Amino acid sequence: MRFLRAGLAAALILVGLVPAVAVAQTPLQLTTPFPAVVADPGGTARFTVTVTTETPERVDLSVANAPSDWTTNLRGGGSTISAVYTSSQPLASGQTAPAAPTAQFDVEVQIPDSATPGANKVVVNAQGASGASSSLELDITIQAVQAGAVTFTSQFPSQQGATSTNFRFEANLHNGTNEQLSFNFQIDAPTGWTVTAQPSGSTQAVTAVVNAGSTSTIVVNATAPSSTAAGSYPINITAVGGPQPVQVQLTVQITGSYSMTVATSDQRLNAEVNAGGTTTLTLVVTNTGTADLSNVTMASTPPSGWTVTFPDIQNDTIPSIPAKNSVNVTAQIQAPSNAVAGDYVVTLRGSSTDGNSSDSIDIRTTVTTSALGGLLGIAVLVLVAVGLFLVFQRYGRR
Q1: Going by DSSP bridges, is the β-strand pair 246-256/158-162 parallel, antiparallel, or unpaired?
Q2: DSSP state for residue 14 in the 8-state scheme
Q3: What is the spatial distance between Cα 163 and Cα 208, in angstroms, rounded to a whole number?
Q4: Which of 108, 125, 142 corresponds to the end of one domain?
Q5: Distance of CA 366 to the CA centre of its chain
Q6: What is the domain extent for residue 166?
Q7: What is the number of domains present in the chain?
Q8: 248 and 272 within one domain
Q9: 301-307 long-range CB contacts below 8 Å, 24 or more apart?
Q10: C-alpha 312 chain-centroid distance
Q11: Which of 177, 222, 225 is nearest to 195 (CA)?
């Protein structure tokens, strides 16, 4: 019985030693968090590989067992490499022993368009200066590309507004393939328009990088020239970079631009009126925009006691002025009878709620004395002179 217990204890000791041997760190290791990926024909499979050694040293790298028509590159620091040098990182807070020396590099496998569905293997070999070696197997499964793997859509592809509006669209670019894709954008817009397409949150990027299975929001800004007439205008944005180009079709409905001018028919900005009298001006109200103006209201700001009327239009309102057309309006300015001779400013204004368009002119109005008043003054002076003459004739000799 004693021998049986001793044998069991020895067996347990031996079993306890087995895991320690299995997990003991080798002098040189190659590891990657994702050693097996699914890729599409014509795509690129990427792996981030970590090299771990017992002491800092140079490790030479090479690729073996790759399909003959595939291209495999080792990348590091922005260059193609063939070796790395491992180094230890400084001790972190609370760390009692330094970590093993490491280095990282990327494996890029370019898959030809002719690749057929199935399993493939790429092997990366490492040879350390200390004599240790290791290999890492990377599994790449080719999957046939399905139609519609990349989509480009907008929930609100049509907008409407005035010519001066900055139209902003959002489109969803979905990458349904098995790899990360980089997209450029081709813009087909009406002549003279300013249109940009950029990833959301960026004002400088001209490409969008979309991970496998992810969606990126693309912001499209469109501005029409000021002379753009009312109408419907298509804008097509094509994303290039996936298995095949994809396009989102957007539409801008321009309602036109709204602007107007108010001027006199003879371009004069001055008038004369007698105190208590009326002077008449012909105003030209022009729709200088590309959309019709409705309910154009005429108004004035005269001096206190003055009156301005627009007898040609009802309720001081022009019902409509078509784009690029004009309407003549008569303005009657009446000065009060007690107006003192001099210059006065009368403001005449036209406005419409369409696009908050308006314009105004100032008329310098000169008040003169009336002809009847002048004659009455002369008559008074004559009577006074005659009276004085008679008085001197009668009493001057005494």
Answers
A1: parallel
A2: H
A3: 29
A4: 142
A5: 53
A6: 150-256
A7: 3
A8: no
A9: 301/346, 301/347, 301/349, 302/333, 302/344, 302/346, 302/347, 303/344, 303/345, 303/346, 305/336, 305/338, 305/339, 306/333, 306/334, 306/335, 306/336, 306/339, 306/344, 306/346, 307/333, 307/334
A10: 47
A11: 222
Here the tokens at position 48 are 């981030």
Number of H helices, E strands in the chain: 2, 28
Look at residues 235, 221, 204 and name the one whose alpha carbon lies nearest to residue 168: 221
Which tokens go with 369?
Answer: 């004395």
The residue type at 117: P
**Residues whose CB falls within 8 Å of the CB of residue 44, separated by 6 or more in sequence, listed in order:** 108, 109, 110, 111, 179
- Residue 185 identity: F
Are 136 and 166 in the same domain? no
SS3 20: helix
Question: 73-83, pLDDT tens digit by residue?
Answer: 999 999 999 99
**So what's the pLDDT on residue 375?**
61
What one-character-per-residue DSSP string does 331-382 give? EEEE--TTPPSEEEEEEEEEEETGGGEEEEEEEEEEEE--HHHHHHHHHHHH
- Reported as a single tens digit per residue, the pLDDT across 158-193 is 999 888 899 999 999 999 888 889 999 999 999 999
Classify residue 345: in a domain, yes or no. Answer: yes
CA–CA gap between residue 241 and residue 182 (Å, rounded): 6
